[in-house]
Write a structure and sequence with these properties.
Elements: E1 7-9, H1 10-17, H2 21-30, E2 36-38, E3 41-45, H3 46-53, H4 59-85
Antiparallel strand pairs: 1-3, 2-3
Length: 86
């Protein structure tokens, strides 16, 4: 089995996202990408890279999805029941 890295540099993340390193730093500063500072450099976890690529859901996204599902169930429960019976 192939061994994958757990953390990436800002340059590696920039290459993956096809943006500049400055864009990665801006996303880190805004909180869009969570990173750990090691000395003068940042490292970014594989999960954060996947989130930035849209391949993984963050907790905030999951909470938003749950809220929308609960609202839909509250409003359309009977319709969903009928559709499920077909």
């Amino acid at each position: 089995m192939k061994d994958f890295k757990d953390f990436f540099s800002t340059a590696e993340v920039a290459n993956v996202l096809r943006v500049s390193r400055i864009a990665v730093f801006k996303r880190i500063k805004s909180g869009e990408i969570k990173a750990m500072k090691i000395g003068r450099s940042y490292i970014i976890s594989k999960e954060e890279v996947l989130k930035a690529l849209g391949l993984a859901l963050g907790e905030k996204s999951k909470e938003g999805i749950d809220k929308v599902v609960r609202k839909a169930l509250g409003q359309y429960r009977e319709v969903f029941r009928k559709l499920g019976a077909e």
